[in-house]
Design goal:
The complex is a heterodimer.
Chain A: E1 2-6, E2 11-16, E3 27-29, E4 32-41, E5 45-53, E6 64-68, E7 72-75, E8 81-83, E9 97-101, E10 110-117, E11 125-127, E12 130-132, E13 138-147, H1 149-152, E14 157-162, E15 168-173, E16 183-188, E17 192-194, E18 196-199, E19 203-214, E20 221-232, E21 237-238, E22 241-248, E23 251-258, E24 263-265, E25 271-274, E26 283-290, E27 298-300, H2 304-308, H3 311-314, E28 320-327, E29 332-334, E30 338-339, E31 349-351, E32 356-362, E33 366-375, E34 385-391, H4 399-409, H5 431-436, E35 457-459, E36 464-470, E37 483-488, E38 495-497, E39 508-512, E40 522-529, E41 536-542
Parallel strand pairs in A: 3-7, 4-10, 7-20, 21-25, 22-26, 24-27, 25-34
Antiparallel strand pairs in A: 1-2, 2-41, 4-5, 5-6, 8-9, 9-18, 10-17, 11-12, 13-16, 13-19, 14-15, 14-18, 19-20, 22-23, 23-24, 26-32, 28-31, 28-33, 29-30, 29-32, 33-34, 35-36, 36-40, 37-38, 37-41, 39-40
Chain B: E1 20-35, E2 40-48, E3 53-54, E4 57-58, E5 66-68, E6 73-77, E7 82-84, H1 89-95, E8 102-106, E9 115-120, E10 133-141, E11 149-153, E12 161-165, E13 177-180, E14 185-187, E15 189-192, E16 196-208, E17 212-224, H2 232-236
The chains are: A mainly beta, B mainly beta.
Chain lengths: ~550, ~250
């Protein structure tokens, strides 16, 4: 592997020298035109898959590509999130936050259709509960169950058609229970239609669907079930620190709990948002550290084992946590445990023999990165464990806020970082790129640290180009800045993926590279290329 | 400013001659970038699926169906699509139809016995047209000269988005323009405020390689409501239809 940096265009490029077999593919998709597709033919029977058309011509059945439902997750992107108005009581109450994959096309969302690939004349046509041999024939599509951490925390699923003059034709809704009424009674053979798909809480939704029809040959009833996986991201926003130091098989993790919402965030998957303090100025939030592990149902960016393996449970002897660095403006203090005002020493540590609670105080607004080192007799070298805080800023803070924060953090003259196309540290990545990769650890002043799991890399182990998306800064819509992913096989022609050119999962597409069973707006992504060309060049760019 | 032509179309209650009647199933108003002998250029056309009903019979042509010049087709908006408008300000303004008045709608969702007419850029390559294509409503000729035509979409939990409106361009998302990315395909509600024959002039533009402007403009004809069926004599003339089919 060789790294190339093009300084003029502030583009990160990486070269994979060898063609390697594609790893087993699982897809998690953030946007694009896909279908929940039913296939039926008399020889092979039923199949329910996620599909798309290779040539986008939906009259052309020969160009359909199919993804196994068991290996495909549809993630609700930022544009799916909204506040529910009146008139949708089948999903949630007015004013609740919901996530909708809409019936109409939105560049920055899923456009999820339903398609039936079956020849005319195989099935009888249903009208009410009567059947006849006229027409192309129809099948039904029904919801049988909705399970997962989303429904477990009270989330509902609904599926409906928006009517031309307002109102909704509701077909599937879990809010009033799931029964025989949760059915699209007639989908014609050859159908390709779009509906709204919506969810009312973050988490996982495993939706079991059944397709059924009555065959013209013999009048036999036939049916088939399949479960599809949808995922609604957690907010990635915390208002206090509830940190858990874990250890498993040489891996350390400093995870952030959100017990109210039943989610545990791994490294860089959440930000602690701290408002102005009402007392004494500065920015303060409740803060606790322990080494006890967690059993929260959703864990973002880490395995269940690492989530549960509290360091004090799996290690013998005392465990503590030392603050080794604060990147951010002003000073930070956690009671008597650590203070940066007098410099950081070996004594700036938290004894985790028992849980430690207190208040974390920042003196200045801005973006604050706290880097910790676990201290234990058996501890080997470990990458810093990071907690990131926003003091007086929110998740949607601007480029100007970012520039101002780093200028004050490094005592640079005001305006040093305020040109998006500038490159203060001359590392080949411009300020706009570093703003988008801030959550990944990009540093506009010092050289970027070695963070192979976050900053863009060709990863030999996974055989994929991986990077870290911050959907709070780039919600995948047309509004700049957009973080665009592209590749080339000859360094001349580049194929770029973005909201207007979404790629195709079985050819080239952005997919997931996350660990855990849930996601937040901060998520590790990868580029899938199939078949893998002899050599490929990859780059991220900002437009 | 209203786009609609104020001069009534003479003989507007007669089906236009020679055009074939598209009456049901799926079809698209599509844009392609093709070379048909004079160099590659934009072609605005109809792309009807193989099951689409044309003069009472499926179009055929296998899975891909057939493409037609817009002048070859009249799209039926059957009387079954007639609805009564309610009192919803955004719909009243966008459609130009007041509370309690009738409106005929080609719906955004598939309905039996009604054309399922979409708008498609699926024949455009996103690498060649990174900015996609923009459809623009140029003019509308209604049966009385005072009818209103509109195109809108209901989706998700949002209020309706109007893209075309002869009654109120200011009610539309982008002043009677509809942007679509390349490789796209979507369905909308097409609303007509009165029965009869309508002519809708659409223009489409796009930037080849992001720089070179390409355009095409065509007129699409709609037969709305209880219009007399074309006579058998007229249908007999439809043998000329094959001359109007586009090469693929």
């Amino acid at each position: 592997m060789q790294q190339i940096c093009n300084r003029k265009s502030a583009i990160l490029s990486l070269l994979a020298l060898f063609s390697l077999p594609s790893p087993a593919r699982e897809f998690d998709l953030l946007y694009g035109h896909h279908e929940i597709q039913t296939d039926y033919d008399p020889v092979n029977g039923w199949s329910l898959v996620v599909s798309y058309n290779l040539n986008d011509d939906f009259n052309d059945r020969t160009q359909i590509r199919r993804l196994n439902a068991d290996q495909t997750t549809l993630i609700a992107p930022p544009h799916a999130k909204g506040v529910l108005p009146n008139g949708f009581s089948f999903l949630a109450d007015p004013g609740e936050t919901v996530w909708v994959l809409p019936q109409g096309f939105d560049t920055a969302n899923h456009f999820l259709g339903m398609r039936v690939i079956a020849d005319a004349g195989i099935f009888q046509s249903r009208v009410g509960n009567n059947y006849s041999n006229i027409g192309r024939g129809t099948i039904s599509f029904s919801l049988k169950s909705a399970t997962g951490s989303g429904p477990d925390r009270g989330g509902h699923f609904a599926h409906w058609e928006s009517l031309s003059l307002g109102g909704s034709e509701v077909y599937l809704s879990s809010r009033d229970g799931i029964d025989e009424s949760d059915e699209i009674p007639t989908l014609p053979a050859g159908a390709h239609s779009h509906f709204n798909w919506a969810f009312s809480k973050p988490g996982n939704y495993f939706l079991e669907f059944e397709v059924a029809g009555r065959l013209r040959a013999g009048g036999t009833e036939t049916s088939h079930r399949k479960t599809f996986h949808f995922q609604v991201p957690h907010s990635g926003e915390l208002t206090q620190i509830n940190a858990s130091l874990c250890f498993h098989d040489k891996d350390w993790a400093l995870n952030l709990r959100d017990p109210e919402n039943g989610v545990l965030y791994g490294l860089r998957r959440a930000l602690v948002v701290i408002p102005d303090s009402n007392v004494g100025g500065g920015f303060s939030c409740p803060c606790s550290f322990d080494a006890m592990g967690s059993n929260l149902p959703d864990h973002v960016g880490l395995t269940a084992t690492l989530a549960q393996s509290g360091a004090s449970s799996v290690l013998t002897g005392p465990v503590s946590l030392r603050l080794i660095e604060h990147i951010g403006p002003g000073e930070v203090a956690f009671g008597s445990h650590f203070q940066t005002a007098d410099g950081l020493t070996d004594t700036d540590l938290i004894d985790l023999t028992s849980p430690t609670t207190g208040t974390l105080d920042f003196t200045e607004p801005g973006i604050h990165t706290l880097a910790f080192q676990p201290i234990h007799s058996t501890a080997s070298k470990v990458d810093p464990l990071i907690i990131r805080c926003l003091a007086g800023l929110d998740l949607q803070h601007s480029f100007a806020d970012w520039a101002d924060s780093y200028e004050r953090a490094y005592s640079l003259p005001a305006g040093s970082l305020n040109d998006p196309s500038g490159d203060w540290n001359r590392d080949g990545s411009n300020h706009q790129m570093e703003f988008l990769l801030d959550a990944a650890g990009a540093d506009p002043v010092r050289g970027n640290p070695d963070l192979p799991n976050f900053l863009p890399r060709y990863n030999q182990e996974s055989q994929r180009f991986t990077f870290f998306r911050d959907l709070t800064k780039d919600p995948l819509d047309d509004a700049p800045p957009n973080l665009l992913l592209s590749y080339s096989t000859d360094l001349e022609k580049w194929k770029t993926l973005g909201p207007k050119n979404r790629g195709r999962p079985l050819e080239y597409a952005e997919s997931g590279a996350e660990e855990g069973n849930a996601v937040s707006p901060f998520l590790r992504r990868s580029l899938l290329l199939s078949p893998a060309p002899p050599k490929s060049f990859f780059r991220l760019k900002v437009e | 400013m209203k786009l609609k032509t104020l001069i009534p179309l003479l003989g507007s209650l007669v089906t236009p001659s020679f055009a074939a009647l598209y009456s049901a199933e799926h079809g698209d108003i599509g844009i392609a970038y093709e070379d048909e002998g004079d160099g590659a250029e934009f072609f605005l056309h109809y792309h009807l699926g193989g099951d689409a009903i044309l003069n009472g019979a499926p179009v055929g042509g296998g899975e891909e169906g057939e493409e037609f010049e817009p002048s070859a087709i009249t799209t039926l908006v059957p009387d079954s699509t007639k609805a009564t408008m309610g009192s919803v300000a955004i719909l009243n303004s966008g459609t130009g139809v007041s509370d309690g008045s009738p409106i005929w709608i080609i719906p955004q969702a598939e309905a039996e016995g009604v054309p399922f007419l979409g708008i498609a850029t699926e024949e455009l390559d996103g690498d060649l047209f990174p900015g996609g294509a923009t459809f623009q409503l140029m003019s509308v000729t209604s049966p009385s000269g005072d009818g209103d035509f509109s195109v809108w979409q209901q989706s998700g939990i949002s209020p309706p988005d109007f893209f075309f409106s002869t009654n109120s361009a200011s009610s539309t998302v982008d002043n009677n323009k509809l942007e679509m990315s390349a490789g796209g395909h979507d369905h909308f509600n097409l609303g007509f405020s009165e029965e009869g024959i309508w002519e809708v002039e659409l223009s489409v533009s796009g930037l080849l390689n992001g720089t070179d402007l390409l355009t095409d403009t065509e007129t699409f004809t709609f037969q709305v409501g209880s219009v007399p069926e074309p006579s058998s004599a007229l249908l007999g003339l439809l043998g000329a239809l094959s001359l109007l089919r586009r090469r693929r």
